[in-house]
Amino acid sequence: MLGRYQPIVVANRAPLALEPADVYRNTPERLVKGAGGLVTALSSLASSTSALWVAVARDEADRALAARGDPAELVTEDGTTYRVAFVEPTPEAYDLYYNTVSNPLLWFIQHYLWDLAREPIVDTATLYAWREGYVRVNQMVADRVVAEALASAKPPLVFVQDYQLYCVPGMVRAALGDVRIQHFVHIPWPTPQYWTILPKSIRDAILHGLLGADVLGFQTRRDVRNFLLTCEENLGLAVDFRERTVFYEGRAVWVRNYPISIDVDGLLAQADSEEVIAEQARLLSWRPEKLILRVDRTDLSKNIVRGFLAYERMLDYHQELHGDVQFWAYLQPSRQDIDDYRAYLGSVLSVAARINRKFSRGGWTPIRVEVDDVMARALAGYRQFDVLLVNPIYDGMNLVAKEGVVCNRRDGVLVLSENAGSYEELGDFALTVNPFDIDETAEALYLGLTMDAPQKQARAERIRETVRAADINRWISLQVQDLRDLID
Ligand code: F6P
């Protein structure tokens, strides 16, 4: 079906990033896959349909890529070609768009991260950042999509991604009128009341922008319900909850959930690569008998500190495990231009250090924290864990839960937050926890470490089957199917 159309993927990040040469480490310049779940999921769609990808140039490295062509034909190390058109806002506009509005404001609202008694403080600076940063960058992106759509010989199919670009569907619709637009929100959609943290002008503009699309995609059924309620309560729109439709300016906007997933075969092939096997050999040289793993960006929503506190409780209750277990936190630095994120990484490191001081003895260190971003090392960890801790406060989906169990070779147990999007699919086969309850999480970690082999095997097998049955191809085909129904 896509063959008749020109797909245009629109996202803040490009599908690949330039890693400059490093004279100290003696490594050459590399074009590597961009970070994060969104890029992983959309890359398959973009490369298999020769979609055009419109992205925002985030830094000097992206600007260097943008200088290679317009759109730039970029080929990754594994030979995949992407066509990327960059928009290039000024660094000031980008900073207001990304570091003031998208993260933290929207990200914090959508993951319920604000301590509302103290934060956020909304003032004219917020409105300025919205106007001069967020709306301005969204308009640049929309203008670029419109230009590409008008230049294309085939009718465009526009796939806009995530919370950085909420105004784009409305802007593209205003310019092109009859065009098919889908917007997918990768992160949770909170309740209508929580949105009222934002000034009315901003929260209404977000809904008006999104409703420019024909189909709105979310991760879970809960997100869909919350979105429909938000349209009804905050904007007074007519909503059909059974048909999951919002009636807006004479159009019916479909609201659907499409749980995002992974490329199972591609990931398994990568997990068997020489690089990963070499990382695994390194891991085997230090791993204790029992290994608890977490792999996360250093994001406040990931709940890394409570994960350590839960582990501390477990070590308090189960002295027999001392010396035999280690908690490896493999953490990717994230959004370090934002104060809250820097402070959070500081708390993560200091809590881990305190727990290590409390329990370390005879060469045993209970927690190993590594702040780095080497995919092969994460994959080696996936192969080797006994327990994988995924305990976010709230999370759109959390692909670590899916990737980890699919790659694991020890029938490791998944300890999963009931507030992760992946809970809707995997909750029955994981040990599920309330992410705020560190005693319950401690108990789940212990149960996971001591579970008998047949039960572990049965649970891991069910998770692998579930992920295989609903992999990334299904995520894409469900969306394409809905677009087809819409067009026909
Ligand atoms: O789902 C949210 C998301 O866009 C993910 O793709 C990714 O994990 C993360 O946010 C990336 O954030 P950033 O681009 O700010 O590093």
From TrEMBL:
GO terms for biological process, alphabetical: trehalose biosynthetic process
GO-annotated molecular function: alpha,alpha-trehalose-phosphate synthase (UDP-forming) activity; trehalose-phosphatase activity
InterPro entries assigned to the protein according to its UniProt record, in alphabetical order: Glyco_trans_20 (IPR001830)
GO cellular component terms listed in the entry, alphabetical order: cytosol
SUPFAM superfamilies: UDP-Glycosyltransferase/glycogen phosphorylase
Family: Belongs to the glycosyltransferase 20 family.
Name used for this protein in its record: Trehalose-6-phosphate synthase
